[in-house]
Specification:
single chain; 176 residues; alpha+beta; four-stranded antiparallel beta sheet; 31% helix
Length: 176
């Protein structure tokens, strides 16, 4: 009686099915991850067109160049753009129709690049993470997120009106 002879590359059926199942699960997982992330991004940017339209209708801004968001006590959509005469402006549009919009001409504010340059000079051993426009009441601010020389996560706010430090939060990191 002859024995069955297998080719060296022949694999048992259960291993083929297991490999196919793992491959299908990976494809589904990757697809769900992209779907989930795009949903989060859409939700984050959901109020941008309405806020830009409201800024154009209710202020002197005529052209919108950038829309971002800042969430302090209230969610603000931060609109950067230009007025009809070509001046750069920043508009803070709070969430909700019954709240008032804050409008600032950039000529009356300290430039963000200047504040960041001064911050880098004062904190040369710090690692910059991000900076965004912020607001507290009627005070326009620049929020700078960084890691300081003591490995703490720091949120520091600078006034765009006078360039002075407005508020600072230092958080100890537990990651070693």
């Amino acid at each position: 009686m002859m024995e069955k002879q297998y080719l060296p590359f022949t694999v048992p059926d259960w291993l083929k099915w297991l490999s196919a199942a793992i491959l299908v699960m990976l494809i589904v997982l990757i697809g769900y991850t992209f779907y989930f992330i795009s949903g989060i991004q859409k939700e984050k940017e959901s109020g941008y067109p309405e806020a830009a339209e409201r800024a154009v209708e209710e202020t002197n801004i005529s052209e919108v160049s950038d829309v971002s968001r800042y969430h302090g006590d209230t969610l603000y959509h931060v609109i950067s753009g230009q007025t009809e005469d070509g001046s750069d402006a920043i508009v803070y549009v709070p969430e909700g129709e019954d709240t008032s919009i804050q409008f600032f001409l950039e000529d009356n504010l300290i430039p963000v690049d200047q504040l960041l340059s001064e911050w880098r000079g004062a904190c040369n051993s710090c690692e910059l993470i991000d900076s965004v426009l912020a607001i507290d009441g009627e005070e326009p601010l620049l929020e700078i997120k960084y890691i300081d020389k003591n490995n703490r996560f720091v949120l520091e706010y600078y006034s765009l009106s006078d360039g002075e430090s407005y508020e600072r939060f230092r958080l100890n990191r537990s990651i070693k």
